[in-house]
Design brief:
By secondary structure, the protein is an all-alpha fold. Among the domains are: about 55-150, Alpha Horseshoe (Serine Threonine Protein Phosphatase 5, Tetratricopeptide repeat), CATH 1.25.40; about 370-530, Serine Threonine Protein Phosphatase 5, Tetratricopeptide repeat, CATH 1.25.40. The protein has 21 helices and 4 strands. The strands form 2 sheets. Strands 1-2 form a two-stranded antiparallel sheet. A two-stranded antiparallel ribbon has the order 3-4. Strand 3 (about 35-40) and strand 4 form a beta hairpin. Helix 16 (about 375-405) packs parallel to helix 19 and helix 18 packs antiparallel against helix 19 (about 455-475). The longest helix is centred in the C-terminal third of the chain and has 38 residues, at about 415-450.
């Protein structure tokens, strides 16, 4: 699933270069089509587009597949095996119908999307399109003949294109839905409307220089925010229980609050003739409250819908209600343990306030869910480095207390007796933890560098880790070795990223650190080369005068 960076917290510690970004989930997998209901009863032999009757055995197989789908949805336990199994059940219904059952292929594709098998899903969607056209062509109904498209399929294909992540995909997805995805039967357009709301929000946030973003359209809407609001409210007017519509509407209010805040800051800067004021916009609180109201109403309607808790967290964070935001992100992870964005947000907000343990937990979950996500690996490394720093600090504090207790005046106190007895074990434990944390952080930085060698954060942080901690966790590594290795890594960083304007400040800092590491290494070399001072002379015998001439061997008479 594509991910947009909604708010950057710019979190770092001890020179670490790591951005902890709070993110919104972009889109929700679509529901499957269910058996047609008439008078509250499920009809096992339904009429398909084009007038083809559904065979009883096909209808029964289809219904069973829908029930299996719902079971996994409720339990949120989708994996490759269950996706394949449920998809196969829908396809079995299609076989029972004689391979003329487009809804079966559509549902098989929707099921495969649950496990991000977009290539396989696309193949099923293409079959659904072809079968729908064939049924329409064979129909004697002029209305059916005139509309051979399976509009919901085009919505899913558009969103698959969008999730590739490039900016051009947003416009292409909008074009696909507006030209092919809108069903003449308006009641069938809930997903299309929600998808349009999402896409217009995405273009507004990610492609602000695109003239289409602020171009008045045929409906009279002035910009993408107005378009997003229109389509989302229309979706809710059709189905006021469709949670993705609530979720996107709440996110719309978050976007609008930021936009209003930006406009207010620009106005204030102009009135006070202080251009710096426009660089410090604050989201409009009244608009944020509207978004929070929508999110809270949605969570009351369906407390199990994880997406709305993540959105609540985003809005609460924008309102500077950090504690409540953290709880909302945690709630989202509780409702859906595979919710990548929620884990990233939970980790990022804990990282901001040095909650290293919870941050590491969140990033570890996230990187397990998406092994190829750079930010998850980087965040995990930074969080573990925080734990490393904590372990070494605690070890040093215990060692200091232990040293203080060698003072005869303190050694006999109960506190000193306790610390003397416990200190060796505590120190050994913390040294072991520190070494483990170092290894984990180092491995995560290396994995991030391998994943995207052209991003600077992991390269820089790796050098910092080596410089500051390698000799503290491994007795075989001297400070000289640490400084020399760090200097090498900093210089490699400079060589790789210099000349790129966006990294100018970081390159300058890396150069400075390389120079400092070189000076420290030279100091260590000189210290090692300097001969040890001669020992002080033995003390003179008691009663003698130091420096007095030796007594004469002769005896005067």
């Amino acid at each position: 699933m594509n991910r947009s960076f909604v708010r950057s917290l710019g979190t770092s510690f001890a020179f670490a270069v790591a951005t902890a970004s709070v993110v919104a989930a972009c889109g929700t997998p679509p529901p499957v089509k269910e058996p047609i209901k008439t008078g509250g009863k499920t009809v096992s032999t339904n009429v398909q587009p084009g007038g083809a009757e559904v065979k009883p055995e096909a209808a029964d197989a289809f219904t069973q597949a829908v029930q299996e789908f719902k079971k996994h949805e409720e339990q949120r336990d989708w994996d490759d095996a269950s996706c394949s199994a449920v998809s196969a059940k829908f396809l079995a219904a299609g076989k029972a119908q004689g391979d003329k059952f487009p809804a079966a292929h559509y549902n098989a594709g929707v099921t495969l999307l649950r496990c991000s098998k977009e290539g396989d899903a696309t193949a099923e969607f293409d079959i659904a399109l072809a079968e729908k056209k064939a049924l329409a062509a064979a129909s004697s109904d002029p209305k059916v003949k005139s509309d051979p498209e399976f509009h919901q399929v085009w919505v899913q294909k558009a969103m698959i294109r969008f999730r590739k992540g490039d900016i051009a995909g947003i416009g292409e997805a909008i074009e696909t839905i507006t030209t092919k995805g809108l069903d003449p039967d308006g009641s069938q357009n809930v997903e299309a409307f929600v998808s349009l709301g999402l896409l217009y929000r995405e273009r507004w946030n990610r492609d602000p220089k695109n003239p289409l973003t602020t171009k008045k359209d045929d409906y009279g809407f002035a910009d993408d925010l107005a378009r997003a609001q229109f389509w989302l409210q229309n979706a809710l007017s059709i189905n006021d229980a469709f949670m993705p519509a609530y979720n996107q509407l709440a996110l719309f209010y978050l976007d609008k609050a930021r936009h209003v805040g930006k406009k207010k800051a620009e106005f204030s800067a102009a009135m006070k003739k202080d251009p710096s004021l426009k660089d410090k916009p604050k989201a409009d609180i009244q608009t944020l409250e509207l978004g929070l109201l929508v999110a809270e109403e949605a969570s009351r309607r369906d407390a199990g819908y994880a997406g709305i808790w993540n959105t609540q967290g985003l809005i609460l964070l924008e309102m500077n209600r950090t504690s409540s935001a953290t709880k909302a992100f945690a709630k989202a992870t509780e409702k859906d343990g595979k919710f990548f964005e929620a884990w990233m947000n939970y980790a990022a907000i804990n990282l901001q306030f040095r909650g290293w343990v919870e941050a590491a937990k969140g990033y570890e979950k996230a990187k397990d869910l998406r092994p190829k996500d750079y930010d998850a690996k980087l965040g995990y490394a930074v969080a573990v480095r925080g734990q490393l720093d904590g372990a070494l600090t605690y070890k040093d504090e215990v060692a200091r207390k232990q040293g203080d207790c060698t003072d005869p005046e303190k050694g006999g106190t109960p506190a000193c007796k306790e610390i003397t007895a416990k200190a060796p074990g505590i120190i050994a434990e913390q040294e072991g933890k520190a070494k483990d944390y170092f290894t984990k952080a180092n491995t995560a930085y290396d994995a991030a560098r391998d994943l995207d060698p052209n991003r600077p954060e992991a390269h820089y942080n790796k050098a910092l880790l080596v410089e500051k901690y390698s000799f503290k966790v491994d007795s075989k590594i001297t400070t000289l070795m640490a400084y020399e290795q760090a200097e090498k890594l900093y210089n490699e960083f400079v060589t790789k990223f210099q000349g790129k304007p966006e990294y100018e400040k970081l390159v300058k800092d890396a150069k400075s650190r390389a120079e400092e590491a070189a000076k420290s290494a030279d100091f260590e070399k000189k210290a090692m080369a300097t001969p040890a001072p001669a020992p002080a002379p033995a003390p003179a015998p008691a009663g003698s005068v130091v420096g007095a001439p030796a007594p004469s061997a002769s005896v005067k008479k």
